[in-house]
Amino acid sequence: MKIVYHSFEGRYSDNPRALHQRLLARGDRDDEHVWLSTPAHAHGFPEGTATVDIDSPGAVRALESADLVVSNTHLDFPWDKRAGTTYLQTWHGTPLKRIHRDVLFAPEGRLDRLDHDVAKWDVLLSPNEASVGPLRGAFRFGGPVPVTGYPRNDVLSAPDAAQRRERVRAELGVEDGRTAVLYTPTWRDDDKFGDGPDFRLALDLQRFTERLGRDHVLLLRLHYMVSAALQGLDVPGVLDVSFHPDISDLYLAADVMVTDYSSTQFDFAVTGKPIVYYVYDLDRYRDVLRGFYFDPHEVAPGPMVAGSEQVLDALADLDGVRTAYKERYEAFQERFCHAEDGHAADRVLDLVLPTGEARP
C-alpha cells in the first residue's frame, strides 16, 4: 500500500506526522510512505524518510499513484485522484473562527480553487462533536466526518509526557523553574493577502522582557501561513519556535498559553494548563474578517484582554487565573476535548486502512 502524506505545505508535522509515526510503531505492515516536502523544511524529516518536492511533477505522480493520501490542509495544485484512492483530510484544528465558505473575507477565486481539492476528499476528521457541523458546513462536505480526536494530541496524554516535557524544555534552553509562555497568534487574512506585511505582532515583547523576563520565557509560534514573518527576531527572553516541527512538544514544554482566535487553544486545553486571550482586534476579526462559530465570551476558559499590559498582569497571577476560570475550563474540556484520550491515531488508522471501514 502506498501512502502519501502532506502537512502545512511540506512540513513533517501535525496529524499526518502522528499517523505516520503510529503506523511505523505498530510494525505490522509493509507500506510505502512518501511525504510531500520542500527544501526549506527538509531538515525536519527523520533520516531515511522518502520525500518529494511539493512543487515538482514528482508530487503529482506520487499523489496519482497513491492508495491513501493523508493531508491536514488543502492540496492547492491540480492532480487527478485515481479510482480506488482514499483521501483522508485530517484538517488542523477545532474551528472557532469561520473557515472556507463561511469566512467573511477571501481573495477573489481562492475558495473556488480550493473547492477542487475538497471534491477529492473521502473522509474528513473531526476532533470533537462540536466541530462536526461547522466542518461539514464550511466545506459543503457530504462524506463521513467521524469524531476521532486528533492524532497529534495523543502525546499529551502519553505515559512519557512528563519526560518528553523535560527533554523539549532542555532542547529549547528553558531552565527549570522558569515559566514558559507559549504565544500562538493566528494570521489575519487582510494582512496576508493585502499590500502590507504578512503579519503584525501586537504583543509588546520589550515590555514582556522588562516585566517578566527574569523568570519567564516567551515561545512565539506563528501560524503556518505566516511562519517566516518574524525571522531574525532578536529579543531577550523570546524564542521564535514557528518552525519547530511538532507543536505538541511546545504544548508540553509550556506552562501557559497566550492566544487569540487560534485553534491551538482547543489542543492546549487537553493539558489543563491556563490560557490567556489577547484579543485586541476582536470586533474587527468577528465582524469583518472571519466571524466565529462559538462566542468567545461564552466559551473562553481564561481572561480575554485587549492590551499587552493586561496580558502581563494575567501571566503574573496564574494562580488567580486558574481559580477564577476553573469551572469554565472544565466545561471547555468537556465540550471540546472529550475525544482526546491518547488513542486517536489508532482510531483513525482503523478507519482508513484496508482492515477498517470509514464510519460517519
Draw up the topology in text.
Elements: E1 2-6, H1 14-26, E2 32-37, E3 51-53, H2 57-64, E4 68-71, E5 86-89, H3 110-118, E6 123-124, H4 129-139, H5 161-172, E7 179-184, H6 189-192, H7 205-212, E8 216-220, E9 238-240, H8 247-253, E10 256-259, H9 264-268, E11 275-278, H10 282-289, H11 296-299, E12 304-305, H12 308-315, H13 318-324, H14 326-336, H15 344-352
Parallel strand pairs: 1-2, 1-4, 2-3, 4-5, 5-6, 7-8, 7-10, 8-9, 10-11, 11-12
Helix pairs in contact: 1-15, 5-8
Task: Describe this protein's structure.
The protein is α/β, with parallel strands linked by helices. The protein folds into two domains: 2-149 and 341-352, Rossmann fold, CATH 3.40.50; 155-336, 3-Layer(aba) Sandwich (Rossmann fold), CATH 3.40.50.12580. It contains 15 helices and twelve strands. It has helices at residues 14-26, 57-64, 110-118, 129-139, 161-172, 189-192, 205-212, 247-253, 264-268, 282-289, 296-299, 308-315, 318-324, 326-336, 344-352, and strands at residues 2-6, 32-37, 51-53, 68-71, 86-89, 123-124, 179-184, 216-220, 238-240, 256-259, 275-278, 304-305. The strands form two sheets. Strands 3-2-1-4-5-6 form a six-stranded parallel beta sheet. It has a six-stranded parallel beta sheet with strand order 9-8-7-10-11-12, with helices on both faces. Helix 9 (264-268) links the parallel strand 10 (256-259) and strand 11. Residues 356-360 have low confidence and may be disordered.
